[in-house]
């Protein structure tokens, strides 16, 4: 490692920022992460995130081998089916997904809080909590200084914005790079997985990712999160000896309250929701979801009613506006801080992880003296910007996450719904089309070029 190896400041201890920090530290590059939350357990981070081959590949490269194995052991049971159902729980389509026998070439279900605890493991000397970023200064000597709300500051050679959709770094650095309202709202709920709530779902819905195409422009998605530990945090019978050993000595278990649950999210165009929906919480928000799903199957409505009121969350879906390339400097961005996308393709976290491993590779080259730091940043941005904003566009135009989607129109919406159901129905029943659909699913979620 060159004596001129950079010191990197990362703003935000989210998925992408922490993955980058692990990769840099493994490469011997000095790094510090600054997180606005006061503790590692703060924040409503219990919902599912799907990690595809792109994300798992990035984690395998950046994490130590043992911590990557911990990541695999802490994943919920992998989905075996991608289902499309109606609001009455009639199955329109069902696609069998690949088994999770390969460490990366599959789809994994991860709880956000659990993944957060995995990525914080062993980083106590790197992550600084209760540090709300306010602004930065780029100095004549080539360094950059980050300032925080408590009056403290930190200086380094590169500042990486990993502070999410509402990035304070982006507002200062690229004020013209804005996000806009996508026109849809989600109500996310988390339901404890019990014998009774499990019984409300047929087997394929229990073991899959299920997209709900409802009438009247009401959409939904349902995931069952089944972990290797029970409601008391004890390892379940049948856990392999290797996983049991890993989980028993993993310190993150003490900080992770995640338990088996069902994620049920309903969404539609924002026009269908009460004007004050973003201010509602708990039972009031559950009632909004129930009012909007009056014609849904009683089992789905019961799941909504059995949700943990403290977990119910309204989400106004946003999307980034594309920006032209900018002149590279000692500040750069990754993940939602630069390319916020809707959940339409489910690749937001995967794209942030792709950013992290790409930037890590470039910074390793700079530390080794094979290129300058600024050239490394420029090469990262040259590759990241096109694929990042391509994902933004793809996500906005899929699964009704755009409030102007035809699905939400009074008359055309019925035809769009029939067309969507017809497409999935035919695709799932024709063997060649079914194989192509599954192959395309993994190709997209595993793409790096």
Architecture overview:
By secondary structure, this protein is α/β, with parallel strands linked by helices. Helix content is 37%, strand content 22%. The protein is built from 15 helices and 17 strands. A hairpin with a 5-residue loop joins strand 8 and strand 9. Helix 1 (15-26) packs parallel to helix 4 (112-120) and helix 2 (53-62) packs parallel to helix 12.
Number of strands: 17
- Biggest sheet architecture: 7 strands, mixed
From the N-terminal CA to the C-terminal CA, the straight-line distance is: 28 Å
Class from helix and strand fractions = alpha/beta
Mean pLDDT over the full residue set: 94
Mass-distribution shape: globular
Rg, Å, rounded: 22 Å
Uncertain segments: none
Portion in helices:
25-40%
The largest sheet has its strands arranged as 5-4-13-14-15-12-16
Helical stretch count?
Answer: 15
> What share of residues are in beta strands?
15-25%
Brief summary:
With 449 residues, the protein is of the alpha/beta class. Helix content is 37%, strand content 22%. The strands form four sheets. A seven-stranded mixed β-sheet has the order 5-4-13-14-15-12-16, with helices on both faces.
Supply database-style keywords:
449 residues, 15 helices
Topology (elements, then pairings):
Elements: E1 7-11, H1 15-26, E2 30-34, E3 48-51, H2 53-62, H3 65-74, E4 81-86, E5 91-96, E6 108-111, H4 112-120, E7 127-128, E8 133-138, E9 144-148, E10 153-156, E11 158-161, H5 168-173, E12 179-192, H6 195-199, H7 203-206, E13 208-213, E14 219-225, H8 241-249, E15 261-269, H9 282-292, H10 298-305, E16 313-320, E17 331-333, H11 336-339, H12 348-367, H13 373-396, H14 412-429, H15 431-445
Parallel strand pairs: 1-2, 1-11, 2-7, 4-13, 11-17
Antiparallel strand pairs: 3-6, 4-5, 8-9, 9-10, 12-15, 12-16, 13-14, 14-15
Helix pairs in contact: 1-2, 1-4, 1-12, 2-12, 3-4, 12-13, 14-15
